[in-house]
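Input:
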Amino acid sequence: MSARDLVADFIVPVVGALMCLTPAATRPTLQFGVRVPRERAGSAVILRERRAYYWRTAAIGVCCTVVAVTVEGYGSWWLSRIILLLEVAANLGCFWAARRKIAAVKNAGDWFAGQRQTIVTDTNWRTDPPRFPVGWLIPALAVTAATAAVGALRYPDLPAHITAGLGGPGHQAPKSVVSVFSVVACQVYVTALWTGLILIIYRSRPDIEATDVTASSLRYRRFLAAVTRALLTLIALVDVSLLLVALRQWQLVRLSGPGLALPVLPFAAGVLLLAAVAMRAGQGGSRLNGNLRGLAPAAGTDWDDDRFWKAGLLYVNRDDPGIMVGSRFGAGWTFNFGNPTAWLIMAGIVAAPAGLAAIGAAAGM
Amino acid sequence: MLLSIEPDGPVPIYQQIRDRIVEAIAGGMQPAGSALPSTRGLAVDLGVNFHTVNKGYDLLRQEGLLRLNRKSGAVVRRDAGSGPPDPGWAQDWTTRLRTLLAEAAAQGMPAEDIGRYCRAAVAAFAFPAGAEEGTGSEGPL
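Output:
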């Protein structure tokens, strides 16, 4: 099975399903990137646009999957990737169409008029912060260490040329420390990158609702704990996928036909687990234990900060020292594109694999 | 402690931060010796500029309510049980209180209602047992 077949058989339908279901994980007060007062969350325009989004994106997902499976084995290797890009672009178009209609009704009706708009924080978040679950990082570190140990033991017996690349038979590269341990470098990169991002998330601000302060603070703690554990499990499973790739490169395991897809399975399982946890918890824990509502009196309604969200997806606020904030669409976090530190981190995320690729190219990979 | 601000409100944000912390100290939520978040941490949590929080904390330091230290961070210095305020403070406070009460009188609020609101506000503060009768620093408004 080639990389193109995998895109058709796994990525296109999974991406389509995740984008279709994303509104279900989004906060009721943040509809398609538009902040609305809680009492307006069930407005006719919102319900109508949600229904339309579900139907449109479901149809796009089915069409793209059918096309991707149909063209399997034909045309260029890039064809399946183009289908994936078109699918994402079409789904984003559905998102922006819904956003435009909801924002128009919100602005016409001046939904926040007369409301006391507040930002609320719980100082206990800083004086009694949640602990990063270090124990859940051990599997990823153990898999990486095991891969490096197997590579070190196998190195003397490897032939002068080994298979390079992550998908398909790949091409042959001369044996060297760089070519043999490139997969271990990928594992270190993935583990370090995501661990670093999670640590930043732990220092970011919690998503606390002004209309439900104490309960939403408790729910956010549970959400953060659950998503962090799912992310650390995903990191471990990505490392297992890379271990399987390494075992094939080091000629310890021979895979052929559909067996070539085996390394993808742990990664796919991790993505589905993370998606399931995010869907169950909802953004900031908004789908967790609704009966906690009302522990403390409302401190007004959430501040209408739409002006800082470009296209409803990108957060740009120069005055906000936060590097990452809760995302508006789906469950998770996004960078503050108005923060120079966030740009430095994004540059590092891009530069590290580019540097690894350059080292690999220099080593003849 | 829950801290809420109105970013688009008429009161500057640093003043709102200062006011909410003073209320938390008086209400017993932040007793003397308790820690407040670092300026950077609170700025991230509120999504406001670091200097805005710094200005609010600095006001509290000047008023003697907060101790700022590089190692221990921001710590509440005094509360309702810390004894009489510093000399001279009551005079300044009385001037501000007169203005506040004058606003109610100018709007036509009856004296009994003004007194009732004042008693209700004071009743929400966390005075130590037996301290409600005053400390001898009272004076004519």
